[in-house]
Amino acid sequence: ENLQGLFFNPSIALNMASPLENVDPDVNLNIIFRDGTNYEGNPLHVHSNVMRKSTFLQEKLYACSSSNAKPVDINVRVHDNTADPYIKCIGVMYSSYYGEPISFSDAENAIDILQVAWEWQFDDGIRASMQFGVEVLLPYLSLTLGGGAHEIESLLVLHDNLEKALEKEADPQLQDNIMEVMKEYVISNFDAEASVDLRDAWVNLLLEKCRSTIEEIKCVDMPEWRNSSCYFLLWMLNLIEICDGEMFRAALGILSEDREFVEMLAMEGEVDTYGFSRLLSILDAKFVKDFADKCII
After folding, report:
1. What secondary structure letter does DSSP report for 194?
2. Has residue 47 been placed in a domain?
3. Which domain of life is it from (predicted)?
4. Whose CA is closest to 37, among 2, 80, 73?
5. Is 68 exposed, middle or buried (0-12, 13-18, 19+ CB in 10 A)?
6. Tens of pLDDT along 161-200?
7. Distance separating alpha carbons of residues 209 and 2, to the nearest angstrom
């Protein structure tokens, strides 16, 4: 399947002379699905210069650099059993290469591109998708969210990727901007005018993220991942406390009732490893308050 016609379509690409318009594709990209089957449209004929917009694909190209064969054959195993989001992401990579502003047709398109961009380490796609998320998708969801499964799922997908944005060190300013916008948006859904369904949906989402982040901290061995997960949990607790006192008490209950996690805090917190000491101090304050309130004997 030759994608050159798609990517050079004037309605999609820039209305200007493309630096690749007279250059034949030099890569045969073969997509292999999660279940091990091959995409029926293989190979995709693409340009190596564009593929280098993705760190993951750039490494694939580097591994084949000793080959004299033209075009180069590259096999890429993907995390899905459909090629559509990956082909769309390649289209976005061409737009990025041309210098064209990246736009999305709808929220579903942005989420599809976002997840592939993370998988392929395509920074421009991540940045554009996240910007779309905080400027367009979040306000849209605030109007449509009523406890429906589809809306909740969309929120979870976006929130998970916001967490990844916090972990990513390549662009600290982007992290700060995204997390600040996310914080302001979440807080706005707990004001006096917010519907009960909306508040309940966010309470469930935030408490579930606390639970899943605690599990990540307990299970992940890589220091940098544990570190980012710890600080993300601290960020979550701060956000929850601002939003709703009852929800904050519930979140502290989730932390304190996990004996394995508390024991980990007690051991790691003594040497200030992975931010555990800050989490431990929060729980210490809870225990003192509970004792003062005669909640524990």
Report:
1. S
2. no
3. Eukaryota
4. 80
5. exposed
6. 555 554 554 455 655 665 676 677 778 778 777 777 778 8
7. 42
